[in-house]
Amino acid sequence: MSTPLETESTRRRLTPQQAEKIAKMTDAAVEIVLADGFDKLSVRDVAKRAGVAPATAYTYFSSKGHLVAEVFWRRLAVGVPEPDPSLSAFDRVAQVLHGVSMVVAGEGQLGGAVTVALLSDDPESQHLRLRIGGFIHDRLAAAVGDGVDDPQGLVDALQMLYAGGLVTAGMGHLSYEATSARLIAAAARLMGQS
């Protein structure tokens, strides 16, 4: 059984064979970024490593930024489940913040590559940035719930915390683990837990 992530790309719906090509290309992109960094990444090299024609790779990815943004989107979509409704609002928020902040933890240069990719002006990367932002907003809104004063204001503040934290980690100023801990501590203050 396939998931929507396996059959839907940013640019088109995918057959199982196309989904397999996308998976090979995203895996190849991660391998190249980890070995050589974002600057050395190219869609052409990803195609070669994944065993697909460069023209095929460009059919799915407009740029290396788009490719890395897709890597992040895919990891986020499968790595950050719906908040556990049996937990308190704060524990649900902590669960989401930890999940989203650890998506690329421990993967060397990948975090910096994601930061660069998501901040690029490439239209496909911008589309994914909006999709990622919507996903995180929805997870945080579900975590906050309705049992707090000004739930939308709290979600907005948590999104700002998350965005700033991930840029800080992506720039290498803090590890993703330290960023996660600080995000959760800041959320505790916002939610009156400290």
Automatic annotation (TrEMBL):
Q: HTH tetR-type domain location, by residue?
A: 19-79
Which residue ranges carry the DNA-binding annotation?
A: 42-61
One short Pfam name that applies is TetR_N
User: Which SUPFAM superfamilies does the protein's record reference?
Assistant: Homeodomain-like
Which keywords fit this entry according to its UniProt record? DNA-binding, Transcription, Transcription regulation
Q: Which domain of life is it from?
A: Bacteria
Q: Which InterPro entries match?
A: DNA-bd_HTH_TetR-type_CS (IPR023772), Homeodomain-like_sf (IPR009057), HTH-type_TetR-like_transc_reg (IPR050109), HTH_TetR (IPR001647)
* PANTHER family per record: HTH-TYPE TRANSCRIPTIONAL REGULATOR BETI (PTHR30055:SF234), HTH-TYPE TRANSCRIPTIONAL REGULATOR RUTR (PTHR30055)
What name does the UniProt record give this protein? TetR/AcrR family transcriptional regulator
Show the taxonomic lineage: Bacteria, Bacillati, Actinomycetota, Actinomycetes, Mycobacteriales
